[in-house]
Design a protein that fits this description.
With 343 residues, the protein is an alpha+beta fold. It is built from 4 helices and 12 strands. The protein has helices at residues 22-25, 75-97, 148-162, 317-341, and strands at 51-54, 99-102, 105-108, 135-137, 195-200, 204-209, 215-219, 234-240, 243-249, 265-274, 277-285, 294-303. The strands form 2 sheets. Strands 1, 4, 5, 6, 7, 8, 9, 10, 11 and 12 form a 10-stranded antiparallel β-sheet that branches. It has a two-stranded antiparallel ribbon with strand order 2-3.
Length: 343
């Protein structure tokens, strides 16, 4: 669990959770005696999914080019891949800790990226499925192509980020402390704060994300979706055997996932496949964004630590300073224009 900061761009990267077999991927984990794993039950008779779950992962969301036609890795390839991750992270630590001078003043190399490697909490191990990507469908392990409308939205948003901000609405939801960059839905491994806590009652499930401490309160009583849009969408859930299925629609604006919009439909599945492993699967469907739906799986491991508050809103100096600097830029431009016009 990591400290509060300005928002980090949603680079999705990849903690090992023990290699899982194909039976585990189906939600049935063989025990030592060869029997399928049966999760413990709550007092209400539901499969017990409660706890703090860590979803760091060294496996990338999309399949890397070097594994273009390879869905699974061998143990030898996993060892080499993880060694490469460790080498890269160690090099980043050295690079970011390197000292130098800027305008004659001593500084540290981590200024440009805000932190050195000590502060990051990227996963460094391939997830238990041995897959080359978290995406399991399409078979190529890639996010489907964007529609023309989505490409235009992406370009428009990039334009907002590149210009001097007219107001907070020009900045992303993470930078504004509205949504965490990995809080979802869907929840995806990222730079730090890759933890969520799941709490159950008979008719309700609560998913509390460490990143921006967002809590989704999910009814299980069969009610329909609300017509009121919300930042994290409107979620309702139900049980399918030992799997909790959460259906989310009615997003207020874009979510924490890049290129998403209010039309997004998210289906999440949570299955406890071992005492210390929760298989998280999600499917994203939005015909206005992608040419077809796509699905990913993220094995989560039990975390024995407590989930602490991430107080992103508390004195969000980054946003204040950004907008103050933008207004200073506006003032300087206006003064320069006035001088030019008075000649």
């Amino acid at each position: 669990m990591r400290r509060a900061s300005l928002s980090f761009g949603a680079s999705v990267v990849l903690i090992g959770v023990g290699f899982l077999t194909s039976a585990q991927l189906a939600g049935q984990t063989p025990s030592a005696a060869g029997k399928a794993y049966t999760p413990a039950r709550t007092v209400d008779g539901q499969p017990d999914l409660q706890g703090v779950w860590d979803f760091r992962s060294g496996t990338p969301l999309e399949r890397p080019a070097q594994f273009a036609d390879k869905e699974f890795l061998t143990d030898t390839e996993i060892a080499a891949y993880e060694a490469d991750i460790a080498k890269t992270r160690n090099q980043d630590r050295r690079d970011q800790d390197a000292r130098g001078k800027v305008n004659g003043e001593e500084t540290t190399g981590d200024v440009a990226r805000a932190y050195n490697d000590f502060w990051w909490d990227f996963g460094k191990k391939v997830v238990g499925t041995k897959r080359t990507s978290l995406i399991v469908d399409p078979p190529d392990g890639k996010i489907p192509a964007l529609t023309d409308a989505a490409k235009k939205r992406a370009a428009d948003r990039a334009g907002l980020r590149e210009r001097v901000a007219l107001g907070p609405e020009d900045r992303g939801t993470g930078e504004r402390c509205i949504m965490g960059f990995n809080a979802g839905p869907p929840m995806l491994p990222s730079a730090y704060n890759n933890n969520m806590q799941l709490v159950q009652s008979k008719d309700t499930v609560v998913i509390l994300n460490e990143m921006v401490h967002n809590a989704r309160i999910i009814p299980l009583d069969g009610r329909p979706h609300s017509a009121i849009p919300q930042w994290s969408g409107d979620s309702v859930g139900h049980w399918e055997g030992n799997t909790l299925v959460v259906d989310t629609v009615n997003f207020y604006q874009e979510t924490s996932f890049p290129n998403s919009n209010p039309k997004l439909h998210v289906i999440e599945k949570f299955t406890r496949v071992a005492p210390d492993t929760l298989m998280y699967e999600f499917t994203l469907d939005d015909p206005t964004t992608w040419v077809k739906p796509w699905t990913a799986q993220v094995p989560m491991r039990m975390n024995s630590e407590t989930l602490y508050e991430y107080a992103c809103h508390e004195g969000n100096y980054g946003m204040f300073n950004l907008l103050s600097a933008a207004r200073s830029t506006d003032k300087a431009a206006a003064e320069a224009a006035a001088k030019g016009g008075s000649r």
